[in-house]
Sequence to fold (463 residues):
Amino acid sequence: MLKLYNTLSKKVEKFKPIDDKEVKLYTCGPTVYNFVHIGNLRTYIFEDLLKRTLEYDGYKVNHAMNITDVGHLVGDGDEGEDKLEVGAKREGKNPLDIAKFYTDKFFEDTDALNIIKPDQVLSATQSIPEQIEIIKILVEKGFAYQGKQAVYFDTSKLADYGKLTGQKLSEKKTAREEIIIDKDKKHQADFALWFFLTGRYQNHILHWPSPWGEGFPGWHIECSAISRKLLGQPFDIHSGGVDHIGTHHTNEIAQSEAAFGMPLCNIWMHGEFLQINSGKMAKSAGTFITLQDLKDKGFSPLDFRYLCLQAHYRTQLNFTWEVLLSAHNALEKLSEFLSSEKPGQVGCAGYEEEFVEFLNDDLNLPKALALAWKLIDDKELPKEAKINSLLKFDKIFGLNFANPPSAEHIVPQDIQMLIDQRELSRQQKDFKKSDELRKHIEALGYEVMDTAEGQKIRKKLQI
Ligand code: AMP
Ligand code: ZN
Fold:
């Protein structure tokens, strides 16, 4: 029986889908104005583990995700520029070209991490009519009003606004006092549904006609519109990172529930942050790390996936190069074990049962991973049976166990020549020359290991 922690009820609940046959899962997608960082990717790995667990439990999953390509301002609370326009200015391009480029890059990263692509993906700019439709309903029902700069959601009209955090409206107002006060709003917690091309947004590049005037949507409305269009309302599970609880998801709930008088979804799940030096990932502090940065140091994307499996999704994870290196070494050991024998016809039933129990206990991947190691170390069981079970576990882990990542990388020709020379000197028992050649190879950034099958070579990881 699958149990999941619901941010809304603040409890671990037994999972029961609305429709027995299909689980409807919605994920907030990236804002595509820059490369995603490994913190963002931790959240997408968590969501992938959730989806794989549902499938392991026999459910068919309909997974939908948006792509934010307009309306997400630099500050979550209606202040600052649109992030896409910032990206467009920075690179001297059109916001839609920026969006296309970084959307492709995002999916390259998620593919490399074995994150299964959502079944349905839709961007904010492709769902403008659906967003306008919901705003119209909110205006008609008296939940929204028109100001000079935008159409706003009136948070005072919704009795349980803020229920996701348990924060009262009055507390939210106080917390926001430092942020620029938008004189246009009736209450400071009110948020924009549709911005007009006036004042700070008069030169906004992307804009569309609407019943209230030419403009562009606020960030939150796209998720209400896209989830409803792709999955219906209510759907089963909505997921995202913890930073979205207080504003983005709170506002999604407000919009969808006020417009349609029913819950947006049943379960809210949030992944905790990946921290760096116990702080936020920020470009200015040099702590904004991308998957490419990891690859540049010789790591495989799956080393990072392994690292994420070691921490429960509801605990913070502090990234350091040292922990990534130990993840890399552990994955390498696993791969050696897996490639040492072919899988047998049967697995290890007891371990497989325990594995499912850990997964179903609110996705306890750290325990599931520890179980894989316990299985490897079990002296009683035959290796083929262990490998059979490990391949099943990999349906969740997503670490390419069937085709273990090789430690040996493609070696450049000049290095290969040195290795061949060293092989010759070893055969001729010229150990002095062999040692010199080893030093030479190492100076060029490669490690040489002498094994029973001959020399093994791999790129040294520079951390
Ligand atoms: P954004 O593009 O800002 O909407 O972020 C994409 C996803 O990454 C969202 O689900 C965020 O909650 C999540 N996220 C942002 N920063 C981090 C972080 N440091 N660690 C984990 N998840 C994050
Ligand atoms: Zn969203």
